[in-house]
Amino acid sequence: MSGPSKRPIGDPPEAGAAPEPVDIPWVDIHQHTQSLTWNDREKFDLSGGQAAVAIAAGYYWAPYRPVSSDDVRFLWDDALRRAAAFDHRHFYDQYVAVGIHTWSRVENADELVSVLPEYCEDDRVIAIGETGIESTQHTTSWPLEGQKEVVREQFRVARDTGLPVLVHTPGSSKGDVDPRHVQSYEEGNRNFTDPLLSSDDPKTEAVEIDLALADEVGLPDEQLVIDHAGRSVRDFVLENTGCYLAYSVSAPWLRGIDARDIAAAIDAHGSDRIVVDTDLIGAMDNDPFVMKRTMLDLLRLGVDREDVRRVVYENPREILDLA
Ligand SMILES: [Zn+2]
């Protein structure tokens, strides 16, 4: 036997060689804050959260089925009330996005479109959405022509108010969900309706329709955030449009993307129009520290600090006009 063990992992680093502290703040443009807990929101405070946008419409919490315009209006009002309570008790600013989501058909959606401009006047409402063409719905199918009408009209309100639109894109349904998580996803695969889009790349097909609708009403690309980015739309959006592209990082087991995809996108296209959001939602497995963890992963992958700061903080602030 030899004597007392020596340091088993080598000498401590030279002064200055240790990693710099990660003190980059973040702003999350897309989360379903009203479905999270107080402890989740405290983790935003603990991990550098400066602001977050709660998506007001989520038919998940609609009190009745089928979902009517009154149910969605209830959700908008509820999100606004909760947001006011949240940011008096936390250290980040809680904002709200108001819109008509297409993941379940909404009856009399035109009634919502007509009051949307009033909601946009609320100081707390800083984006429209999430909305955008979907291929499948969770409850009742919403034929494409009806979806186009309601998405186009929301784009028209965005043009008139100057607010950005968070454009939901398909791709997290009817996929091969990791069986360890599928039971945790309350709105899981078995509820989905048959797909309406015919191609094997519904995400790109939906984005093309969304862009055509934006063109119809003259909504500038810079006001569009193409959300839930996937590999198939990356180059198309960043090369052929002026839109922002947002990666939703809270459920890699569902969306099939992680920090490596974001690092590769920054490498290929620069960080000017790339955004990280969480899409945190209480209806499925989630990690309230996911924004901070993604930042650490990006730094470990060799992404420059300035680029990390741009995709989690500067770009979100620019989109939301918080700068
Ligand atoms: Zn979405």
Using brief descriptors, characterize the structure shown.
two-stranded parallel ribbon; TIM Barrel; 323 residues; TatD-like; 11 helices; alpha/beta
Order of helices and strands: EHEEHEEHEHEHHEHEHHEHH
Helicity, in percent?
A: 25-40%
Helix/strand/pairing class, anyone? alpha/beta
Mean pLDDT: 90
CATH class: Alpha Beta
Radius of gyration (CA) equals 20 Å
How many domains is the backbone divided into? Answer: 1
Number of strands: 10
- Which spans have pLDDT < 50 for at least 5 consecutive residues? none
Distance between the termini: 64 Å
Give the CATH architecture. Answer: Alpha-Beta Barrel
Largest sheet: 8 strands, parallel
> Approximately what portion of the residues adopt beta-strand conformation?
5-15%
Pfam families: TatD_DNase
Protein name: TatD family hydrolase
Organism: Halorubrum pallidum
GO molecular function: hydrolase activity
Description:
With 323 residues, the chain is an alpha/beta fold. The chain contains eleven helices and ten strands. The strands form two sheets. The protein has an eight-stranded parallel sheet. The model has no long low-confidence stretch (mean pLDDT 90). The site of zinc ion has 3 residues, from loops.
How is this structure best summarized?
The chain is α/β, with parallel strands linked by helices and 323 residues long. The protein is built from 11 helices and 10 strands. Zinc ion binds at residues 130, 168, 228.
